[in-house]
Amino acid sequence: FTNTKFCNSSIRGRFGDAVQEVDNVIGSIYAAVEKAGVADNTLSFFTADNGPWLQKNLAGGSAGLFAYGKFTTWEGGMRQPAFAHWPGKIAPATRSQELVSTMDIFMTMINISGAMQYLPNDGRIYDGKDMSDIIFNENGGKSKHECYPMYGGAINDTYSNCPYNSSDPKYPVCSGLWAIRCPIANYSGHYKAHWVTRNTGGQIAVQNPPLLYNIDWDPSELHPIKNTNKNYDIIMAVLSQKRQEALASVKVVVNQMLLGQKSEYEICG
Asked: What is the CA radius of gyration of the chain?
């Protein structure tokens, strides 16, 4: 998706042209912020919503060493770079290897702006965490997330039209939560388990037994830990428990995507 002004403006093809345009747009925004004299009081975030669109080949971007891309719960589909900019508050050219979520932006802004008292006090769960310690390099600069659940579909309910019943081997597809990564006490690195996977072509597969990776040692997810390994069951027991806790925290609501397929909700019928 590139404005004609930037067509053939880079040596990276269509994707490079799009990056050139994004760079231009961001530069224009920052110029306006500086012109307004509010640069020192403006916190900016820049990130992406998912990995590369692999069906577009080189025009869809690259996940680098990570596996697969958009529409998947592999690292290439879930991980993106991010930047935070605030003159005088965030030290220039600093970098963190901590993982955060785009959902963390909401809670970070709420805390920085002192707006916690305005949030509804009704017991609702906020998935995001305040990442101020990371962007300001305070208190060790660590993420407040223990685990990262990764969803590949809607949680099974009366609205999700799951094609499998509970006795079907493919029923885990309908859980929605296909993978999770967590640190494991007394083990080095973070571990990630896949119960369900999707490949570039969109084919979905239930992994039985689940695929298990040490994601710090094997970020490309090329070498699954064998289920015969003496540590497999120990690690999977922890990850399975964390997966159940994550699922239990989700309040099931009407699937908005499926509602959009109904004619009565069409904007232009």
From this structure: 21
Q: Who's near 234: CB < 8 A, 6+ residues apart?
A: none
Contact predicate 182/147, CB 8 Å: yes
Sequence length of the chain is: 269
- The first and second tokens of residue 210, run together, are 């689940």
What the block records as the tokens of 64 is 């680098």
Q: Which of 64, 72, 15 lies closest to 200, judged by CA?
A: 72
Over the stretch 53-102, which tens digit does the pLDDT of each residue have? 888 888 888 899 999 998 899 999 999 889 999 999 999 999 998 989 99
How does pLDDT run across 106-150, given as a tens digit for each residue?
999 999 999 999 999 888 788 899 999 999 999 999 999 999 999
DSSP 135: H
Nearest of 163, 161, 123, 148 to residue 251 by alpha carbon:
123
Per-position b or e across 152-183, b if 16+ CB within 10 A of its CB: bbbbbeebbebeeeeeeeeebbbbbbbbbbbe
Which residue stretches of the chain are H helix? 13-35, 75-78, 104-112, 132-135, 232-248, 256-259
Cα 217 → chain centroid = 20
pLDDT tens across 187-233, in order? 999 999 999 898 878 788 889 899 999 999 999 999 999 999 999 99
